Structure formats: structure tokens, C-alpha cells
Amino acid sequence: MTSNRTEYSTRIRDAVAHREPGRSLPAPFYTDREHFDLDLAAVYGRSWVFAAPEAEIPEPGDYLTVDLGPWSVIVVRGGDGEPRAFHNVCRHRGSRILTEERGSTGNIVCGYHKWTYGTDGALRHAPAQPAGFDRSCFGLRPVRLRAVAGLLFLCLADRTPEDFDEVAARIEPYLRPHRLAEARVAVRSDLVEHGNWKLVMENNRECYHCDGHPELLRAYFPTFGYTEETVPPPLRPVYERSCRADTELRQRLDKLGVPHALIEEADGRATGFRVQRSALDLAGESMTPDGTAACRRTLGDLPDTRLGDLSLHLQPNTWFHACADHAVTFSVRPLAPDRTLLRTTWLVHPDAEEGTDYDPGTLTKVWTATNEQDAALVARAQRGVADPAYLPGPYAPNEHQVEAFCAWYLDRLREELQR
């Protein structure tokens, strides 16, 4: 067994050391169970991971469970209104406590032997214990949780990435106008993609394939990732139109005091991120088939409906889009080397009424179609990287964010292998 571990460690160290920058990862990174298990430990076990929007747990006692590989975490809003996170493991004999994906409770009760915990994690009741039993020693084990402008992030590591406070401070002004902490969940959707979690993330980090997204390209300019020097001739007219729209948008946002400048630090740091507000096509209001707002009520303090798209990417598992009328959150959770859960959540104004202020079909049409199209592309990619004929291929210039993701990911593996 020790020999097998040593051989595995040597193989993966060699694979990390010899990966050629600017090319896709070698096949084992996408297909092998050993690599998958290392990903869970090195990436999901040590990074700040997006769990859910705060809107998922609006009231005291509301909870959800977040499964990340072997870990299960309870995220609950306490009686004092504060969200907290705990390992979903009973302190008696280790039973899984909550088995439902979400719900509401006054106390957290283990269904095995009825050990009962408060929403603050303290052990309230343990039946038939001897005299002198000290309940204070057996509270739920906490998990670090941070709320950033209505978005909940958790970290399973004892030592968390030190740069998260800085990143939170830099992205919070972009999110603040939308007041997502006060928003309401309109629609939630789960989609299991038949591909490695990294293929899901890589696919999201480029628009080289966006001609496969006709719904998205109705309102979203297909020039994501291109520059003046790299945009191909067929896209030149669209690129120039997007530049004019962006110039107009920036002028409007400057008058309103809404931040919009690109910050791109997706690699070279523990908490890689990218944030920017950019123009939308057609009516320019929202990510809908005609670009008009999908909800009559604007989010938060936004006084104008033509405020473009706030896009935020954070490594390792999430991206967000927020328009004046609604926001969409995406969470990527590994299930197996070749299966990944994508959870998409649409948020609207807390007082928005379905059927009056918004139609769920219109609200979700673009991203539902785009997610399904991406799932098919990811499944094709998974079948391809598993083929013995696969060799890592070169990234195009407009796939630089894919390279940044891979560079960030490999840095996490190097850190883990050095422990």
C-alpha cells in the first residue's frame, strides 16, 4: 500500500511539473479517481467555496445541506439572524444528522439517538447520559462561513486562505447595489453534467464555443475574451458595436457611482477572481431573449434598468451574473471523476410576485437553455479526454481565462503535494 501511494505521488508530481502552459490538461486530470480525490482535498477542502445565496435561508431556523465530496455541511440561520455552518456529523457516534437538502427547524435533531443541537451548534439534549456528562464539550463542529453581500462562502480547512478578506472587500462594492441579501429565490435548478468538474469550469471560462448558445447570444455579445488585436474579422462589426455599448454604459454607471472596471486576478493568488460590469445587446436591460427586463421590480438601489451585466467569477466553483432586475448564481460541486452537479439559482426583488412581476419561463429561458447546451458540450469533452488518442491541445487567445483557471488549479495541487 505504501509503495502504491509513493508511485501515485510520483506520477502526479511529474504530471503537474511537466504540464505545458497554454495547453489543456493531460487526460488523468479529468478521468482518474486518484486525481479526483486529490482535487477534493487540495481544492474543495482548502479553498473558500461558494455554498449558496443568503436568500436560500431567509428566516431563523432555515437550513440547507451542502455536500462536497466526503463532507456534508449544514448551513443554518440562527435565532439571532446570523448564518452559521457546521459539519453534518453527530457528536455521539458520527451519524449524518440532517438528510434533507433544505428545510426549517427549531433545533437540529439527529434521527439516530435524538441528540439535539441548537442552531448555534450547542448540544442541548443528549438522552440517558451519566451524571457529570458535560454537554458543552460536544457541540457541532463549526465550519468557517462568510457572507459577502448576500453570498455565502464556506471553507473546510483549519487554516483558510489569507487573502479572502481582501477579495471580499474588492468585490463587495460591485455586488452591493443589488442588495442580494434581501433578495428572494424565484427558481432553483439542479443539473448533473457528465463530465469532470474542471471541464465544467473551463467551459464557463471561454466564449470560443458561444456560437452554440443562440439564446445567450441574443443579449450577450459573443466577443467575451477577445481584444482589439485578437477579434476575428467576422466578429469585428459585433465587437465594435459592443465597444460603443460599453462606452455608453460606463458613462451611465459613472454618473450613478456604480463600479464597473475590470479586475482580473484569476491566478497567482489563493482566491482567484474576476469581476466586471459590461453592456448587454438589444434592449440592454437583462439576459433575456430580447434583452428587456424579466422582472418589473429592480433589485436593491438600482434606479435604471439599462445597467448591463455584472459578471463575477471566483475560483474554484462559481460564477454569477447580476442585472438590474434579477441575479443568477451558479455552484459547481464534484460528484465523481466524470459527474458534476451544477446548481443554478435565480434571485429577484423580495416583493416580486410570480405571474405579476415576472414569468419564470422568461426569467430562466436563457440560462436554462445555455446550461443544457453546455452540459452536452462537457459530456462530449469528457468522452474525448477519456479516449486513448487524446493529447492536450493549445488554447486560443480568447481562452486565456481557461489557462488562468488551470494555472490556479495546478498551484493548489503543488501546495497540497508539498504538505
TrEMBL record:
What the entry lists under InterPro entries is as follows: Rieske_2Fe-2S, Rieske_2Fe-2S_sf, Ring_hydroxy_dOase_asu_C_dom, Rng_hydr_dOase-A
Q: Note the Gene3D superfamilies from the entry.
A: Naphthalene 1,2-dioxygenase Alpha Subunit, Chain A, domain 1, Rieske [2Fe-2S] iron-sulphur domain
Q: Which cofactor does it need?
A: Fe cation
Keywords tagged on the record = 2Fe-2S, Iron, Iron-sulfur, Metal-binding, Oxidoreductase
User: Residue limits of the Rieske domain?
Assistant: 48-154
GO MF, one annotated term? monooxygenase activity
Q: Which PROSITE patterns match?
A: RIESKE (PS51296)
What is the protein name stated in its UniProt record? Answer: (Fe-S)-binding protein
